[in-house]
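Appendix B: complex inputs.
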Amino acid sequence: MLKKLFTTFALSATLALPTMADTDPAVEARQGQFKLIVHNFGLLGGMVQGRMDYDADMAQAAADNLFHLTRHDQSRLWPEGTDSFSIDNTRAKPEIWENLDDFVSKFGALQEAAEALQPVAGEGLDAMRASFGGVAQTCQACHQVYREEAS
Amino acid sequence: MRLITLGLVAAGLITVSAAWVLSAPRPLPASDIANLQGDPEHGRSVFLAAGCSSCHRAPGPDSDPLILSGGRSFASDFGTFIAPNISPDPDHGIGTWSQTDFVNAVMRGVSPTGSHYYPAFPYASYIKADPQDITDLYAYMMTLPTDATPSRPQDVTFPFSIRRAVGLWKTLFLSDEWAITGDLTETEQRGRYLSEALAHCAECHTPRNALGGLDRNAWHMGAPNPSGTGRIPAIAGPDFNWTEFDISAYLESGLTPEFDVVGGSMADVVSNLGQLPKEDLDAIAAYVLRAAQ
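Resulting structure:
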């Protein structure tokens, strides 16, 4: 499954434009993907942190979304030359492309964590809490090495 | 003409002598430290709050935070600093250091042989610590695993490569005065101790002047990222609108109020601070808001 999501990664690299206009559509799309992820992740986080009441239906819907969002095929979202040293408006470090296997493996960890969250999100706050933390850990593992500070 | 030359030579000698005197290492007297009894269990809390492992664990995101083999590098305007091995290894770490050696290294930036450390090692923050806490830290760190990785030399450019000159930097910027003063609550004072003396938040979140000293008039106002692109965000000022709950939750979990997840160097900070009691994180949060006023 994971492999399939990234199989055309190398191919897409050859299609990247050498000079980028203001915004590359791939960069916009991948940022949109992360906005959708945080939109759902944040709802669960709000419940875990007690900022809002736990609601089983809402939690389940958000967890379902996370599952599907993390299954979105990534092969056209990360063309070479769209790193933070090459273009503006991205925080994606060049190290992503230098360690593509590790990056893909970290994305795989996010997929697994989202998969683990899905069956428990609607089963109560305590049931959701640990799996929510697992998702957060996979976000952090990637941000720690592959994301620049905001400017 | 000869008189002028003589005068210039004399003035030069006086300047050099003054610089030599001013730049001398100033360790704490051994009598203040040698008799303190270290508590390794409390030392662990100090270790987490002070963030030792963030710089001294091995390079790579997944290295063991308790193996302080050194080797991580930190680029700056003055050159690249490379964290040394501070595991208790007797040959390559600090295994042969006395308690007094250790406290002077941490709180005064002076090595056991009497030379200056570069202030990338945040002793300009640790100088505000309680020597008892640093003694506890010593007791704890001596229980950690040894590692035989040799320390690498610092890669610092001239004139910063002259270590003695760090002594002059210390006369300008090394101070045990709190940055945030006034009528602080007990919680804010606890938070100030944790933040200013141990966690050294200001070392990254406060801008520096041309000589590398913290600009105390812009405390926590954010600064360029010395080791990469982007900025270390402001945690004070008009655009910082986090609540005490937000700050404490972030330090515990790495989640911002918008549920972005922490990254970069701050991920290490959260990994460490997240293991402290919640009331300590609340105290840091109260202090950060007090400092932002």
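Chain B touches chain A through 22 residues (CB under 8 Å).
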